[in-house]
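I would like you to sit down with the record closing this message with an eye to the fold:
=====
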Amino acid sequence: MKCPNCEMEFESGHICPACKVDVPLFSKTVHISDSLYNAGLARAKSADMTGAIESLKKSLTLNKNNVAARNLIGLIYFEIGKTGDALKEWRISASLIVEENPAVQYIQQMQKNIRQMEKLNDAVHMYNMAFDYIRQKSDDMAIIQLKKAIELNPKFIDALNLLSLCYLMQGDNDKAVGVIEKILTLDVNNAIALQYYRQILPGKTRPELGRSAKKAAVAPAVRLLPGAPSWFGRSFPVAGIIAFILGGLSAFAVLYILILPERIAAKDLEIEKLQNDRVAQVQLLREQFDSADAELKELRDSEKALNDENEVLRAQIELNDRINRIVDAERRVDRQEYQEAVDAAASISADGLPSDLLERLQNIRNEAYPQLTKKYYNDGVRLYNSRQYDESRLEFENAMRYMRSEDDLGDDVLYYLGRIAVLANDLDGARVYFQRVLDEYPDGNQISNARSRLNSLG
């Protein structure tokens, strides 16, 4: 007999002397695991993703080293938008078998196609944002985020289910049914979608989707163990065998009595062997527990690595967004849309920005601020001359927002604000403005006017 676990050949017994595996039980377990894999593959080809995942999980429970089942469940997870779960299954598969394992290629493709992974990651981020909006009772905002997520990943079943729930919460059953029908074309037995449908139409179990999914014939992807041979054909002489047995019973009884002591001794040896086998099985179970602990640690390490990768991707996406907004602000400066450029630059967080991007932000301000100061000053003078003093004061105050100490218009802005304060009978405020002209712009062109005005106020 050849052990299917360690491939050692041995002559007698059913327990492998090397790895202590019960060979018939192990072979039967592998056979059932392969059958469940084939059932999962058939369900996946029939667009029954829920049933396929269920069968493949059972297959892996029986045989965690079933690489074909692990690769297939990873593909299904990737298909329905669960990229993290897919990557986890493929990494475990790649750790079991490296050579000629499709899982290695799947991982390499994910690593190479960064843009596609960013889109899928954005879809998951928008899906999580939708959850936050639902908790805040902002259904409309949640729907917007979910539509964006589905646009990035049209087969994101969790996002589709959440979108149908939002429509149900808003009472828009027609839109909810439309989304449910789309889900059931991707996963014909999706429990959540079917539950929502029964809630909308209690008298129907599922929607009629037109042409139903054609169930594909599935050839076994794994070679199963051969079935047990048939030992008795139709022509086997059963009656003759029974007669032979009845004829030899007496002789058999005599022989059995004569050799009974020897048989008792053999039984004692068999009992001792069984006890030794039990000890070996206990040791095997301990080794399996240790292996399970090692696998759990590997899974946790894999999860941490995935989280780290997600953080890197999230940081890169955020940086790209800030770069795009800086570019937009620079374009607005080029189009002389200075106020819009300054507002856009003000909305960009400078925390953690590289020095070259910080310099570009500062350049936007350096170019736009003088232009805005000049614009608001000219508008203020025009309104002041038209005796629209309140509107003029607002324009001069806007000029001060973007005014820097080295600007030539600083003393003019302060002087006009002082004159407007006098007209509004705000003499204390006027004194402050005129005094600032004297203190901050001793060489300005309004120095004498400000001193004269200040002296006249007493």
Summary: The domain at 369-457 is CATH 1.25.40.10 (Serine Threonine Protein Phosphatase 5, Tetratricopeptide repeat). Residues 211-260 have pLDDT under 50 and may be disordered. The radius of gyration is 40 Å. Residues 1 and 240 are 33 Å apart (CA to CA).
